[in-house]
């Protein structure tokens, strides 16, 4: 069955739309920064157009990237997940952004909630396992909500706890923090949940682990990631 064209009713070329969406998600830029960068390339659009494209195509691109990764990695049973949460303020109220990171440092799932109790941890674990399957080991900090949720799922024997064992998950918050400062924080919980889901998938796609490869192979991997990005949403 042939996939429908996502850009069918848009006069702007898909290449420009993909470029604008990539710049607004991948780099810590404001919408007006993206507008200025495209202006230097001879592309005249408004920052509100960038916002519309981000809201329209960002979740679609992220869902396609996430679906391909889930299908490719679901068969691996030796996964090691790292769970951690970070504090995020929305209109002066404290919320919690939880992340599940695999053993390679890629973000699997993000979940925003206003509590850190067993119910929130249980919903987060069920959502992650439904998409990626059950991991071999789950590493958490000393927060007791995770242990209580593990007992409900029946996965308590696979849990490891430690103060410094979740550093891999804590490091995954750094790109989000940089992007959060650029857009002057968030005003709605739904907007934050939408953004972190899209941002994590796009960051995973372009994160080529520069320190693990030679420059030649790193550039080849970056080229492959860009080529795959240009094919997203193609009919």
Blueprint of the fold:
Layout (H helix, E strand, L loop, with lengths): L13 H13 L4 H10 L6 H27 L6 E11 L2 E9 L5 E7 L4 H15 L4 E4 L3 H10 L5 E3 L5 H5 L1 H10 L6 H18 L8 H16 L5
Parallel strand pairs: 1-4, 4-5
Antiparallel strand pairs: 1-2, 2-3
Structural features, described:
There is one protein chain. The protein has 235 residues and is α/β, with parallel strands linked by helices. It is built from nine helices and five strands, in the order H-H-H-E-E-E-H-E-H-E-H-H-H-H. Strands 3-2-1-4-5 form a five-stranded mixed beta sheet, sandwiched between helices. The mean pLDDT is 84.
Determine Rg (CA atoms, Å). Answer: 19 Å
H and E string: HHHEEEHEHEHHHH
Query: Main beta sheet, described?
Result: 5 strands, mixed
Amino- and carboxy-terminal Cα gap: 10 Å
Percent helix among the residues? 40-55%
Which class do the helix and strand fractions yield? Answer: alpha/beta
pLDDT averaged over residues = 84
Number of E strands: 5
Low-confidence stretches: none
Side by side, the strands of the main sheet go 3-2-1-4-5
Q: Tell me the β content.
A: 5-15%
Global geometry? globular
Number of helices: 9
Keywords for this entry:
single chain; about 240 residues; alpha/beta; 5-stranded mixed β-sheet; about 15% strand
Summarize this, please?
This protein is α/β, with parallel strands linked by helices. The chain is 53% helix and 14% strand. The N and C termini lie close together (10 Å).
């Amino acid at each position: 069955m042939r996939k429908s064209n996502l850009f069918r009713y848009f006069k702007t070329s898909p290449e420009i739309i993909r470029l604008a969406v990539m710049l607004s998600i991948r780099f810590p830029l404001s919408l007006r920064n993206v507008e200025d960068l495209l202006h230097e390339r001879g592309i005249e659009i408004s920052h509100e157009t960038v916002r519309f494209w981000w809201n329209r195509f960002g979740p679609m691109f992220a869902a396609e990237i996430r679906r391909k990764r889930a299908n490719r990695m679901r068969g691996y049973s030796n996964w090691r997940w790292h769970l951690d949460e970070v504090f995020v303020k929305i209109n002066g109220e404290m919320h919690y952004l939880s992340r599940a990171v695999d053993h390679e440092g890629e973000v699997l799932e993000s979940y925003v909630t206003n509590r850190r109790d067993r119910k929130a941890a249980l919903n987060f674990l069920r959502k992650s396992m439904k998409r990626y399957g059950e991991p071999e080991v789950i590493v958490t900090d000393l927060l007791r909500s995770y242990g209580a949720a593990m007992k409900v799922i029946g996965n308590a024997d696979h849990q490891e706890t430690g103060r410094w064992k979740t550093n891999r998950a804590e490091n995954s918050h750094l790109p989000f923090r940089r992007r959060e400062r650029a857009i002057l924080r968030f005003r709605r919980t739904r907007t934050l949940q939408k953004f972190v889901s899209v941002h994590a998938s796009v960051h995973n796609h372009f994160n080529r682990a520069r320190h693990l490869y030679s420059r030649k192979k790193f550039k080849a991997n970056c080229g492959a990631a860009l080529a795959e990005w240009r094919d997203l949403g193609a009919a």
